[in-house]
Structure formats: structure tokens, C-alpha cells
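Hi Y.,

Following your request, here is the sequence exactly as I used it, all 174 residues.
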Amino acid sequence: MTTEIQTALIAAIVALITAGIAAYFSYNQIQRERTKWLFELKTSYALELYKIRLIEYPKLLQTIGRLSHGSASKLTPEIAQEVGQEINEWFYSTGGLVADAKTRGAILGLRQVCRKWKEGPRPEDLYEWRNATLFLLRRDLDLVGRESFDSGDSAPLLAQVKSEMDKLQKSPAE
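Below is the corresponding structure, written out as C-alpha cells. Let me know if you'd prefer a different format.
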């Protein structure tokens, strides 16, 4: 083989290896960009979903508040029927579209219990469904679960708040 042919073959092999390496790095760069784009898209979607939930969930919370022990009027089958209807209307609006699957299930369970109660004593599972719904609504917003609070024993709460305030005042501003 002549020197010119050997040189041409070596140049061709080097060019193929260089092209292969360049293609490999280009492909990896494209994959990294695609992954970054998908991450940003999912993050943007999650943020918009969260914003809509922040608007819609309080509406349902007000409706469910009518089932509370502390509501202004005594809970009756008629009020439960009204609450069931309001839950149904909320469910078939934006709120029902953005709720998590488990949250939607709890909302439907609460709606069903409210609508079934036509007369007689309060259904045993009404407050269980209400509490489950409240817990899941809060969970969807990344809020801590349904904590109990005894207003008769507020000293521990006041002590905790005072401690947190002291910590904030002692920490240097950055």
C-alpha cells in the first residue's frame, strides 16, 4: 500500500472517530436539554396547579365549614342536603378538576353522606368523611395535617409562639 493510501485511510478513520465522539456528545447534550425542559415544564405545571388550588380549595372549605360543630346553626338534614348540593357544584367546577384523585374520592364520599341524610340522627360517618376531606385538601396544599387545638389549654401554644418569636429576634438579619 502506498503512503498516500495509508494516509487517506488513517485520516478517514480519525474523521470517523471524531464524528462519532461529536455525535455522542451532541446526543447527550440534547438529552440533558430535553430533561431540563421537561423538568421546567413539570415545575411550571405544578406551580399553576398549586395556585389554582389556593383559589378553589377555600371555597369548598367554607362549604364544609357549615358541617362544623362550631357553625352558627345546628346541623340538620336540610343543611346537609344544601352542603351536598354545594359540594356537587364545586366538584363539577374548576376545583373538582384540580383536586388530587384521593381528595376527589373523599369529596365524593362526603357529598354522598350529606345527600343520603334525609331524616333521623346524623350519620355516623359524616364527620369521618368531613375530616378525611379536610385532611386531604390540606395535604394537596402541602399544609400540615389536621391538628387538634384545645382552646381551654392555650398556654403551650402561647409558649411555643413566644419561643419562635424569641428565636427570630435573636437570629441576625441576613
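The longest helix spans residues 3-65.

Thanks again,
Q.
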